[in-house]
Predict the structure.
Amino acid sequence: MKTPTTLRWLLISALILALPGCANRRAPNIDDFTWNTIGWERLYYWDGSRYQGSFDRKFDRDGPGTYIYPNGDRLVAIFRDGMVVGRATVLYADGKKYVGEFRNNRLTGKGTLFYLNGDRYDGRFISGKRQGRGTYTYADGGQYNGEFNNDQISGPGVLVYANGDRYQGQFHDGQPHGLGRMEFANGRTTLEGRWEQGEFLWPQLLKF
């Protein structure tokens, strides 16, 4: 028969083995890590975001890793001193995907944005918004090539519709607006002149 001392040691050993499992049942925080913990770990932040990857002794993100925002968006990148280095990938919670440049931890520079419905944008971004020259390809076969402003089609550009119609001219908030020319694939008379919010107003000879 085992002595009480032996039973006590067995109980203590079982408790020590069970402690790691108990710790895994709660969300870790910065107090779970020590200065000797460097490598692939998980780090949770007070705003609800979290990071899984490599970090340095100062708890800065450093090396390959994934940062998950509170809304579920996922940033997969290489980090140095907590900042994204070069190109990165963002997997949005709504199904979109971005592959391209980051600057100052913001989606800024040249990149490609893939939409859940099959649309695609190739061009420049500033702080996550389409800005400057870019190409938007629609899933139905249409394509716009031109300027974007504040995430909208605005400025000079060319839009080729899925049915073959072609508009060249000024845009505002995604619509022909200003001087432009519409050429129809079915041979219908070309409309050339001033447009307002997608509607043709009056004819005017243009030089494009």
In short: Residues 7-12, 14-37 have pLDDT under 50 and may be disordered. The first strand starts at residue 39 and ends at 44.
